[in-house]
Each structure stands twice: as C-alpha cells, then as structure tokens.
Amino acid sequence: MKTIDLAYRTLYAELVQRSLDASFETDFSTAGNFVRVPVKGRDYWYFEETRPQKSRRYVGPAEDPEIAKRVAAFKEIKGDLRSRRKLVSTLVRDAGLTAPDPFTGDVVEALEKAGLFRLRAVLVGTVAFQTYAGHLGVRLPGAALQTGDADFAQFHSVSAEVDDSMAPVIDVLRTIDPTFREIPHRTDAGRTTQYENATRYRIEFLTPNRGSEDHADHASPMPSLGGASAQPLRFLDFLIRDPVRTVLLHRSGVPVLIPSPERFAVHKLIVAARRERSAAAKREKDLAQASLLVEALDTTRRRDDLAFAFAEAWGRGESWREALLKGLHLLGPDRHEMVDLVLGKALDEAHIDLEGFPML
Fold first, then answer.
1. pLDDT tens by residue, 274-314
2. How far apart are CA 176 and CA 155, in angstroms?
3. How many whole angstroms separate alpha carbon 190 and alpha carbon 345?
4. Which of 140, 144, 128 is nearest to 249 (CA)?
5. How are beta strands 202-208 and 55-61 bridged, if at all?
6. CB 2 within 8 A of CB 27
7. How far apart are CA 224 and CA 121, in angstroms?
8. pTM > 0.85
9. What's the CA gap between 218 and 134, in Å, rounded?
10. Where would I find the beta strands (DSSP E) of the chain?
11. 240: which of 150, 262, 265, 355 lies 20 to 30 Å off by Cα?
C-alpha cells in the first residue's frame, strides 16, 4: 500500500482544520456568545443568542480540545471558501485521494450545515471509509469505495441530552432532491429511520442497541435528529465510541465525524460474520474494507491502535469473540495471511495476551 507525500498529508491536515473553522463561522453568529453549562456532572459548550429572541444551541463537550480551541479563537475565524476549494482540488487531482460522488457529497454537506455532526452524529459505512485515505495518508483502491447510500449513527443518550435539534431531516434532504421521501419503519409505521429518493438513493440513521433484543425491531426516537428515528443495532456502540474529526473531499471540504479506522476495521470483521448468506456481495465488501484498513494501519505504523481496538472487542464477551473469529476465517487466503501477520505483530508489540485467542 502506497502512502501519499508528506506535503499532501500536511495539506489534508490543514484542510481539516480550516473546514472545522469555517463550520463554526457558518453555525455561530458573532452577535452571540459561548456559555459553559454543567449537565449531569459534566460541562458542555452551548451557544447563546439574544436576538431576535433568547435561544441556546448545543456545541459539544467542554473537554473536547478541538472545540475548546475553536471557542477561544471564534472571533478570529474568517471564511476562505475559494482557497479551500483549491486545496480539495489539489488533494483529489494531484494526491490521488478519493472524493465522494457529487450527490453523496451534497447530501452530507447539507446535513453537516444543518448541524448533524455538531450534535455528535457520526458518519458510518462506505462514505466514512472514503475519508480514511486522507485521514491515514494512503491510497485506497476504488472498488471498496463505491456506495449508493449514506449511513449516520448517534448514541440515544447523546440525542436525548443535548437539548437541541437540527431542522427536519426531510426538509434538509429535499433541498438537495425534492423526490426524497420518508420510509415508514417496518414495525413502527409512525417513525422513520430511512429516507429514499426517486433513484433509490437511501439515507439511514442508526443507534446502538445494548439492551434487550426486543428493541431490535423497533425504531428508537432521536430527539436531536430533526424528526428522524434510528434503527438499533448490536455492536454499533463499539464502532462510534471516540470518533475522529476529518473532512470529506467535496467542494470546499465538509467537516465530519467518523469512527476511528481501527474500530472501523474490527467492526467490519464482526459485521461480515453476521451477514446472511444472501448478502454475499456486502460481506465481501466488508472484508475488503477491513483488510485494507488493517494494511493501512500497518503501513502508517499504527498497529498499537489496531491491537487495543481488537483486544477491547475480544474482551466484550463470547458472542463478540465468535464473530471476530468467523470474520477472520471468512477472509480470502491472501487477506487472511496479511491480517494474521499484522494483527499478531500488533498484539505482540502492544504486549497483549488475549485469553482464548488462537495463536496466529
């Protein structure tokens, strides 16, 4: 796997920083102020405006250093739209990084501007995978990057506690394509977790299910998601814990939250193991993305991150261990050998001995 030149990695890091700066400028008027509010023993930043009437909007946890830095520098933030467009163009054209298809980019950008990521939702799935090339500074093959949908996830506890909400999701999506419609949930007809347009492009909202299996077939209401509910899924809490900030290479750069690459790789092994046989194409894509990220983490000397993520998943119980082992065995011979080698080396270097884990 080839890395991109240091100069381009530096440009990408600069674009991430400037895109986040620009999102603050768009979201928050200089007529307002940031206030620190204690909620259940933790401090959070909110943005308060007094005109035309007093209102308060959630920004993020006070201990998040990136948010704290943006708050401190708020008055100095200036828009540089044209300059960032040139950065995006350079990274796609010259560095060979992947941009999303224009429609997907427009959808994610519209949801970002509506406040989706400010409210700590996380971009997941293949659209998130497209950002790892820039985030890790490697080139990823295009076949693993293709998609016809976009998926987003959020913890229900976050959605319930932020005391803020984005505009109605259906209204946001219809600014991109007026044919978007709500798809009634299969068991909760009054709730919507998915949206689809005339060409069958689909948007889905997800949330972790760590409770009873009774929740699996019901849509979870998400107070901050503009009328959208979310489909509860097992193992999702592992994926979206401690997300990272990066940028989608669309227009002038779209700042997003995505799962850490090591968690994404481990989660894809689990997801592949749980796919039905009828979903063989999706399973193959899961395995390809997992193995590519394992290779990328090895290439960029981030094996420790992979080792600790795998160990965390392994320690979560028997069902997790069975899924991980099945996912590893589903890898083709070449991928299996590479992943075994990298994972074994990662665990060894991190001095992690997993109880019950077979020797690689």
1. 998 888 999 999 999 999 999 999 999 999 999 999 999 99
2. 26
3. 50
4. 128
5. unpaired
6. no
7. 10
8. yes
9. 36
10. 33-39, 42-49, 55-61, 122-124, 149-153, 181-184, 192-196, 202-208, 220-221, 229-233, 244-248, 254-258
11. 355
